[in-house]
Write a structure and sequence with these properties.
With about 425 residues, the protein is an alpha/beta fold. It folds into 2 domains: about 35-280, no CATH class; about 330-425, no CATH class. The chain has helices spanning about 10-35, 55-65, 95-100, 210-215, 240-245, 250-260, 285-290, 295-310, 330-345, 350-365, 375-385, 395-405, 405-425; strands spanning about 70, 80-85, 110, 115-120, 130-135, 150, 165, 170, 180, 185-190, 195-200, 230-235, 270. β2 (about 80-85), α3 and β3 (about 110) form a beta-alpha-beta unit. The radius of gyration is 45 Å and the shape is rod-shaped. The two termini are about 50 Å apart.
Length: about 425
């Protein structure tokens, strides 16, 4: 006797398993990487492609062949290299202070202060992320460099001749709304035409020769701690945002400023998105292969391999198929009952069942043989009455059984006859 052939070949099963594994890995990846979305929501951050966004700055740095990262996990804020922060006006100053403080011996930090109040552009030809600038204002980040004052110019406080550095100059896109900073520990990097400070680094015990060269002061100026990294403020965001970089001179200045902030080192440039509400959770796939979850992942993979190996190499000979009709009296009765039920002839067993119950009771009570059926049933009724057994008489129950036609009636009236038989015998 041979076993039934397999539904799928071994190669087909292997293919199904591989497709399932790849689909599961892809699910983990897209669950983690896809939660942040594109981020082009009109905000003043690296994912924004509107006038106030910084997508153009990141694209320009990438075009130079540098490593540009867009951070959506706050754990990555402590990575080495230059970190560009573009916080919103309502950012927590103490949180900013913690982020910058942790990085002083890790990498440079460049903070761009926000200025524009932007609204989505709902025009017919407006693309996604385009904005309308509805006004400007200066942020207040209490607890973060409180000794620095940030002010914005009005219609009667126009910046003269745009911006200028020690080596170049260029225009500003909105000269009547210029953001500037003041502080006694600031070393100016970019000034407005009237002398207001548009960008500067914080003078401390660190040694920053490239920033000194950009500022036009001796490279040896500053402290002697060569391991300390600088903190740079760009008070006027139009020096780095998409609107400002539309001018070639401004774009070249921004390129040199980023290079000076890197202090001459080949380092990645990271743009933060978490402060703008575009962070997401850690990559599940990455998390599965890091302690303490690495041990569980290894055990799961080994268990999957063991289960797969046992599935392809079963133990013992093939099991023969079961008989279509099982042998034995019980199986024969079951099969016969099923055949009667499927044929719709269950009412034909009603009368034989009543006769069989009468004969079993008569034999059990020792009633004289040779009598006709009516006399035997009458005798059973008298015994039933003499013993005080409640319920219908046997003769009436048998008559109802013989008159049954549906399966429900047959089952119910057979149960009544069986109850009388049990009481008498």
């Amino acid at each position: 006797m041979t076993a039934n052939p397999a539904a799928f070949s071994r190669r087909a099963v292997i293919g199904l398993v591989l497709v399932g594994v790849l689909a599961f890995v892809a699910l983990l990846y897209f669950m983690a990487e896809g939660t942040g979305g594109s981020g082009n929501n009109g905000g003043g951050h690296v994912a924004g492609k509107g006038l106030n966004g910084f997508a153009g700055l990141a694209a320009m740095i990438e075009a130079e062949g540098k490593d540009v990262r867009r951070i959506r996990n706050n754990r990555r804020l402590a990575d080495n290299g230059l970190l560009v922060l573009t916080p919103p006006p309502d950012a927590d100053g103490r949180e900013l202070d913690r982020i910058v403080g942790r990085r002083r011996y890790i990498g440079s930090t460049l903070i761009v202060t926000p200025k524009w109040f932007a609204m989505k552009n709902n025009g017919e030809k407006a693309k996604r992320g385009w904005v309308t600038l509805a006004g400007a204002g200066a942020p207040t980040w209490r607890g973060f460099y409180d000794d620095i004052t940030v002010t914005i110019g009005g219609p009667h406080n126009k910046a003269q001749t745009g911006w200028r550095t020690a080596r170049a100059s260029g225009p500003l896109p909105a000269e009547t709304q210029v953001l500037s900073g003041e502080g006694r520990h600031l070393v100016p990097l970019v000034r407005a035409g009237d002398g207001r400070v548009l960008a500067a680094y914080v003078a401390d015990r660190g040694y920053y020769p490239d920033l000194n060269a950009f500022a036009g002061i001796p490279r040896t100026t500053g402290g002697d701690d060569t391991n300390l990294y600088p903190v740079i403020f760009v008070f006027e965001p139009d020096l780095l945002d998409n609107w400002g970089l539309a001018n070639e001179q401004t774009a070249l200045m921004a390129q040199r400023l980023i290079a000076a902030a890197q202090d001459g080192a080949v380092q990645p440039v990271s743009f933060d998105l978490t402060l703008n509400g575009l962070g997401n959770s850690r990559n599940l796939l990455d998390l599965a292969f890091r302690p303490p979850f690495l041990a569980a992942t290894i055990c799961l993979l080994l268990a999957a391999l063991a289960v797969g190996w046992r599935a392809f190499n079963r133990f013992g000979p093939p099991r023969p198929p079961a008989r279509p009709i099982a042998a034995g009296k019980a199986a024969l009765v079951t099969n016969s009952a099923g055949l009667i039920r499927r044929a719709g002839r269950i009412h034909l067993v009603a009368a034989p069942y009543a006769d069989a119950a009468r004969d079993r009771i008569a034999a059990a009570l020792g009633l004289a043989r040779g009598r006709n059926a009516g006399e035997i049933e009458a005798a059973i009724d008298r015994v039933q009455k003499a013993r005080g057994i409640d319920g219908p008489s046997f003769s009436s129950a048998a008559a109802q059984m013989r008159a049954a036609r549906t399966s429900q009636d047959v089952a119910r009236r057979a149960a009544a006859l069986h109850s009388i038989e049990r009481a008498l015998t």
